[in-house]
Design brief:
With about 130 residues, the chain is α/β, with parallel strands linked by helices. The protein is about 40% helix and about 20% strand. The chain has four helices and five strands; from the N terminus they run βαβαβαββα. It has a five-stranded mixed sheet, sandwiched between helices. Helix 2 crosses helix 4. The protein is globular. The two termini are about 25 Å apart.
């Protein structure tokens, strides 16, 4: 998983044709549970879908006054649908992004089983194949 620490890295991640963004918060036990689930998903995806390139990114949103947090919040505000609160929670949200647009999201990745996360990734990036 690539760490995103600057606005430039965030922009590059959002511009990718396929990206998975994990919203991490260091002090949260929920985010720690989600961190494990996302790591497992990344390994499973690489094993099952070598032909479909997806980059997994970890965004540390621990500092709610940091430029990265504001950048994520502003990007979410421009998205269609009720996703603005994803950056405010400390549960470890997971967002599937296609060309800067949200294809899918969960607010607490640690509460979703590994098969469902893998299936959601397939639907977001490979049309369910």
């Amino acid at each position: 998983m690539r760490d995103v620490t600057t606005l430039e890295e965030l922009t590059a991640a959002l511009d990718a044709s396929r990206a998975v963004l994990f919203f991490d918060v260091e002090w949260s036990q929920f985010a720690a549970r989600s961190r494990q689930a996302v790591g497992d998903l990344e390994r499973a995806w690489r094993e099952a879908n070598v032909a479909v390139a997806v980059v997994f990114h970890r965004l540390d949103l621990t500092d709610p006054q940091g430029s990265l947090w504001f950048g994520v919040r502003d990007w979410l505000a421009r998205q269609a649908g009720p996703v603005g609160g994803l950056a405010h929670g400390a549960d470890g949200a997971l967002v599937w992004v296609c060309g800067g647009k949200i294809a899918d999201h969960v607010s607490f990745a640690g509460s979703v089983g590994p098969q469902e996360l893998l299936e959601r990734t397939r639907r977001a990036f490979a049309g369910g194949r």
